[in-house]
Design brief:
The protein is an alpha+beta fold. It is built from nine helices and twelve strands. It has helices at about 5, 20-40, 100-110, 145-165, 205-210, 240-245, 260-265, 270-290, 295; strands at about 50, 55-60, 60-65, 65-75, 80-85, 90-95, 175, 180-190, 215-220, 230-235, 250, 255-260. A hairpin with a 4-residue loop joins strand 7 and strand 8. This is Ava_C0101 and related proteins.
Length: about 300
């Protein structure tokens, strides 16, 4: 592997893998929708997400019949691996190919195992929603870039999991949302939130209303917001004073706090730089919205 791949905090300019990023985004949407077809619904859409693994991104176990199956993007050997609990397996090679070809091959591989999901075969949360079976536009795959992105996700996940350990209230897993192609983690105050107004492209308002049904502070990483992607934080509903308290990070166009990945990776202590961002933006949300912090947080001498 290259030095970039071996680096603890890999460097990957978004402009250098735009084609692959957009294609991989559509591929993850297809696989995520397969999980959604069979997984029992969980609040905030937690049943549809993917998870970073030691090989790439996985659905985790999906119930089917009297057993389970899983689907994993193996970004080490560049294979989509489909495994059933009865021992059977199928796969699709990850290589330059159109979304339409990937969709056909993936549905065929699933069918060979007797799995034939009914999905809404159109992408969500993107401006140009080309049906998967018709998408010949997105057809790039740079395996090195895909692997670098996965390794960025692993570093983000590792720090997010440490941050997650500081909170005992209701919180999401650290998981990958294929709608916006971001790794996310969310904390909840325990109170209901006003109905979300929606606004995500090609995504019905009720989808957003389910995701944002309760007051929250959310954090994540996505391949946008900086030359090499960015970490983000936001609160819903945003309490008065949130932007001012987070003036060093707040982006008024996005209405989120943003910390470029390159700032983290280039710092003397990337983990501490990211933790400081996560903790400070959380404290802004929790303090300004009057969360019951003593009931929601663990006792940590280094948390503030």
């Amino acid at each position: 592997m290259s030095d970039e791949i071996n680096a603890k905090w890999p460097r990957l300019r978004v402009a250098d893998w735009t084609g692959t990023k957009d294609t991989l985004h559509m591929w993850t949407q297809i696989v995520g929708k397969v999980r959604m077809a069979y997984a029992p619904p969980v609040n905030h859409w937690w049943h549809v997400t993917l998870y970073p693994t030691a090989r790439g991104l996985s659905t985790s176990g999906i119930p089917y019949g009297e057993g389970i199956f899983d689907v994993e993007f193996d970004l080490v050997e560049h294979q989509l691996r489909i495994r059933a609990s009865d021992g059977r397996a199928a796969g699709v090679k990850l290589e330059p190919k159109s979304v339409a070809a990937f969709y056909a091959e993936t549905m065929g591989a699933l069918a060979s195992l007797g799995i034939e999901p009914s999905i809404h075969a159109v992408p969500n949360e993107v401006e140009s929603a080309i049906p998967f079976a018709e998408d010949e536009t997105h057809c790039s795959y740079d395996g090195v870039a895909a692997q670098l992105f996965w390794r960025q996700l692993l570093q983000a996940q590792r720090v997010f999991e440490r941050f997650r350990s500081e909170f005992v209230g209701k919180a999401s897993p650290v998981h990958f949302f294929w709608g916006a192609m971001d790794l996310a983690y969310t904390r909840f105050s325990g109170r209901q939130a006003p109905p979300h107004p929606g606004g995500a492209p090609n995504c019905p308002p009720w989808v957003m209303q389910e995701g944002y049904s309760h007051e929250l502070a959310s954090f994540g990483f996505w391949p946008g917001g900086g030359d090499e992607g960015a970490f983000y934080a936001y609160a819903y509903p945003e309490p008065p004073g949130y932007a001012e308290r987070n003036a060093a990070f707040y982006d008024h166009d996005l209405r989120e706090c943003v910390l470029p990945y390159e700032t983290v990776a280039g710092s003397a202590d990337p983990e501490q730089t990211l933790l400081t961002f996560l903790r400070s933006t959380y404290l802004a949300a929790a303090d300004l919205a009057d969360w019951d912090r003593p009931a929601l947080e663990t006792l940590r001498s280094d948390a503030e």
